[in-house]
Amino acid sequence: MNRYLVFLLFLCCLISSCRNRSQIKTSSDLEAETMIPIKDSSYLFNGVSLDGWEITNFGPQGPVSVSGGQIVLGMGDGCTGVTYKKEFPELDYKVTLEAKKVAGNDFFCGMTFPVGKESCSLIVGGWGGTTVGLSTINRKDASENQTTTYMLFERGRWYRIELLVRKDTVRAYIDDKLVVDYIRAKGDVLSIRPEVVLSKPFGITSWYTTAALRDIRLEKLD
User: Fold this and answer.
1) Which residues contact 167 (CB under 8 A, 6 or more apart)?
2) What is the pLDDT of residues 66-94, one digit of tens each?
């Protein structure tokens, strides 16, 4: 009988030990849980480094870092941004990303992009924090041309931004709401402000504002 009790106690201890071991997480387990998911080839930002990008040397820019799957554009004395250095299409493409304003009162996403051989910029939250539009059309900024619209943007909130570029149209959506619907008229000239020339062909900036970017994705349109 004593031998039987001893055997039962040994069996209980063995089962308990196995359960505890199954609950202990190895360093590999912890590393796997904290890893940023691997992005497919449509993502321009891999979530862990600035591979394919460079910090745009505007001069008075703020610090730029990668943390938690985000690119953080620190507040500078003017533009802070990153420029994509790999091949980028000129027409028939869609860019999507998420951006948020962390601090500051001006644009937290200034996206410079090609339209054929020309360039233009989508401004989100400019001119005091509410202006959305394209800069420039016939030398008129986002605050003064036919694409000008206004939105309130909360600090700390992610906004999904979508840009579609074709030969004669540029459309932009914020959280699935159409905010820019530009149809090119004969004779229209698209250009960019001199402050963001270094963002060509494709770059994203903030202006006197700390911003965060994530899930930057490029897709070709049929």
Assistant:
1) 91, 92, 116, 184
2) 999 999 999 999 999 999 999 999 999 99
Residues 6+ apart with CB under 8 A from 185: none
Chain segment 32-76, per-residue pLDDT in tens? 444 556 678 899 999 999 999 999 999 999 999 999 999 999 999
User: Which H or E run contains 169?
Assistant: strand 169-174
pTM of the model: 0.83
> Order of strands across the sheet with 53-55?
53-55, 79-84, 202-207, 109-115, 118-126, 131-135, 149-150
Q: For residue 191, which phi and psi values (nearest 5 degrees)?
A: -155, 180
Chain segment 116-168, per-residue pLDDT in tens: 999 999 999 999 999 999 999 999 999 999 999 999 999 999 999 999 999 99
Domain spans of the chain, in order of start: 2-34, 53-220
Report the CATH architecture of 53-220: Sandwich (2.60)
Residue 104 has pLDDT above 70, yes or no: yes
Cβ neighbours of residue 132 closer than 8 Å, sequence gap 6 or more: 122, 123, 124, 125, 126, 142, 148, 149, 150, 151, 172, 174, 179, 180
> Please, is 27 exposed, middle or buried when counting C-beta atoms within 10 Å of its C-beta (0-12, 13-18, 19+)?
exposed
